[in-house]
Amino acid sequence: MAAMNGRGHHKPAKYSAFTLVRRGLTGEPWPRAWRTHDLRPSYDAVIIGAGVHGLATAYYLATNHHITNVAVLDRGYVGGGGSGRNTAIVRSNYLTPEGVRFYDRSVKLYERLSADLNFNVMFSQRGHLTLAHNDASLRTMRWRAEVNKLEGVDSEVIGPDEIKKLVPFMDVGDDTRYPILGALYHPPGGTIRHDAVNWGYARGADALGVEIHQNTEVLGIDVRDGAVKGVQTSRGPISAPVVVNCTAGWSSLISAMAGVELPIITHPLQAAVTEPVKVFLEAVVVSGTLHVYVSQTDRGELVFGASTDPYASYSMRGSLEFTEELAGHVLELMPSIAKMRVLRQWAGLCDMTPDFSPVMGVTPVDGFLVDVGWGTYGFKAGPVSGEAMAELIATGKTPEIIASFDLARFAEGRLVGEKGAAAVGH
Ligand code: PYC
After folding, report:
1. For the whole model, what pTM was predicted?
2. Atom from ligand 1 closest to the CA of residue 284
3. In whole angstroms, what is the distance from residue 215 CA to residue 111 CA?
4. Which terminal residue of the chain has fewer beta carbons within 10 Å of its beta carbon, N or C?
């Protein structure tokens, strides 16, 4: 179908069994999920990055605050960065009270997202297990469980027998190389279809009048008298009183265009997926000691991830070293899958901060806001980040839920240490 041009709300096709049957019978084509537009010379807000953070910010700006004169820019395509490269794990079993409250709000928003967006995001709350193979990690699991409970989040430490009930194929005996002493069990955790989340937010934001501009690279950020004035793009200049950096991978380079320095180092994080087999793994299983996490998709593929690559880089290529190391660790945990074949591997970029918490909110440049520094936690934080950043843009006040993630904390020594909640050691 030809791209539609124009501003303002439009009514997207309703996705339902009825419209599926009707369009199937009549042959009426489905409209594009979001429109294309000419770039206009000014907007009320420009959001850089059409991943889950940028799109969610635009969607909540439009839906919660009725601000729709907004452009979301991406040098690639919707969800083509970290938002389409993660292993799609959602959880809120963090270590710090600030982190637990924040990610729990995201889980709550994810729980109703399919209904809110009229788009099935396939959120499967299948339970999340972080294994402890030694006393030190068992202690951290207990600590996390207590903080989680205090914040009203469902997590508890369970022993090998309960683990066996949840993951019957797992060897929980004493005679393995890395015996399993217990696990942090987090029933609300699970997986989601990340592309669907990106597309759903894009479609929802577009329907409310937001413009999404793919293939539009930001080349510079205009700052005058300490305030942002707009951006220079590969399709021309845009003026805007608010510019939000919602990128991952290049967030420090984009911020540097506005003269804002971020304490971020970018590392690749690789992942891999196997051929599909009959479903045998219900929960998400994480082992920090073995540097591996695994879940099984509805189609039966196993999705694996490991630690970030131990060097700073912007490369998004897979490496043989990663596959070899991953296979070794996976087979320690699940020797019975030795014959399964890896179908595909890839990498995304993780912007690591010194305390493993994000950098969100205002910067020394008026109107230039950041929602960056997600390390390995970005996708699960998409909805709450969008909601909070939209509130900040609309009201000019930093919402309480992101207040402790401010940039100033690094200079003022108020770090929010979240490394202990990383899926694996990074
Ligand atoms: O924090 O659950 C997590 C995670 C998994 C993969 C990357 N991060």
Report:
1. 0.96
2. 2
3. 31
4. N
